[in-house]
Amino acid sequence: MTICKAVFNRGTILPRLLVLATLSAGMIWAQAPGGDSKAVSVSKVERKNRAPVSKEVLHVKLPRPVETTLPNGLSVLILQDHRFPTVNVTLRLDGAGALGEPANQPGLAQVTALMLREGTKTRLSRQIGEEVDRMGAQLSASARFGQTAAIIDASGLSDNFEDWFALLTDVLENPTFPSDELAKLKQRLKAQLIQQRTQSGFLASERFAKAVYGVHPASTVSATPESLDALTSETLAKWHKEFYAPQNAILAIAGDVNAKDLIPKLTKWLGAWQKTEAKASQPGNPTPAAARKIYVVNRPDSVQTTLAMGNIAIARTSPDYVPLVVLDQVLGAGAASRLFLNLREEKGYTYGVYSSFAASKFPGPWRAGGDLRTDVTEGAMNEFMKELNRIRDEKVPEKELDEARRAVVAGFALSLEQPTQVLQLAVERKIYGFPEDYWDTYPVKIAAVSADDLQRVAQTYINPQTMQVVAVGDASKIKTVMEKFGPVGVYDAQGKPEDSKAAPKDKPSTE
Predict the structure, then answer these.
(1) Are 493 and 203 in contact (CB under 8 A)?
(2) What are phi and psi of 487, to 5 degrees?
(3) pLDDT tens-digit profile of 317-366?
(4) Neighbouring residues of 313: CB distance < 8 A, sequence distance ≥ 6
């Protein structure tokens, strides 16, 4: 393992030499798109690999947040950092996210979260906005599709922390979901629904989610005009009352605060937020697809194809998480990865292709893909398959493996300069029940990943024969190409089959 040695102590900033460690991993950054859409300028970047590199393993000891539980059951994590006069707050409400919505009400969790700022028992929407601006603070709420939790984020100066935190507690505990503001929000969201269906990235993600998740709740990635129309102020209030519960929440605070003084104040400020009987539900595990299927989403006259391919892989608690992080770094996580160097740098098919994987309390998918010219769709598919088979069939050379491990650890180390990121790591540790030193030993775990480990996880989770492949583009030009790789079903931009006989059925079951 080759990475600079450093110790991260409370209130310190990691050495900037770690930037050199990242650069020495051989990263090549994509040039900005420009010019003729049918011509890609291949990068002429020359990698010297001359940055100074240490052979020692990075050692870190993350600052531990103060942890407590308030009388109402709310878990609190406080990370003190007095370098700057600011405070960041994240409230995670497990069970209030989109994965718990009724199947016929997509958007319920999202709209409930967005409406928190649109009026309380004592403030109108306009007043909330004006107070946030006057205090120089930020306040937002979200409940993304595919997530179990709703999130409220706030930040501001430590001098007026009590004032803007009071605003957060007001929108949390006393939202009124006014019907006039709800009507305005629905109109904005409907316009977004129309717009997103013009975007190839959304169409690829929507069809990919349905292909790999089947009937699992994570297969839903968007509301519909009909589901938005059905939402009322009463519906939102009922969801809020049932699932915005302190016993299922984590309050994370990072910044210029004193934990000893703050905890009694939090008990007082949040005293009216009472514990309920609600329990955060957890969806079952999705079943990986057993055979390759191809899904073409038709965008007539499109000059590019957007590819997305993959299958269900692992949960966050899987022992294969760490080797899969390194595998993804080798294969497609960055601009020094095999997919990028092959399809962009060598072939000039694209401005960039990447891979990633999602891992939470239930297994999520590993996924690869990118945008490329329509006329190179077949060539790109061949190169994707070549790289996926190569990483399964051949062990990664030690030099390439070492560069990937260093890149992962360097990126992790640099992220620790942000107290909010350190706090989020502590939240993640708490969510999944990891040991207290989990992140302290993370670089060592990365350093221990071997070529045998990579080949094993590649053969377990990356299988071209069972992969689900989505291609968004002009079906008249790419359907026959995609048929060379498996049975093809064609869908329109609204997600409906254009040929119901040919369309492969979405995967049906969960465990």
Answers:
(1) yes
(2) -65, 135
(3) 999 999 999 999 999 999 999 999 999 999 999 999 999 999 999 999 99
(4) 288, 324, 357, 359, 363, 364, 365, 366, 461
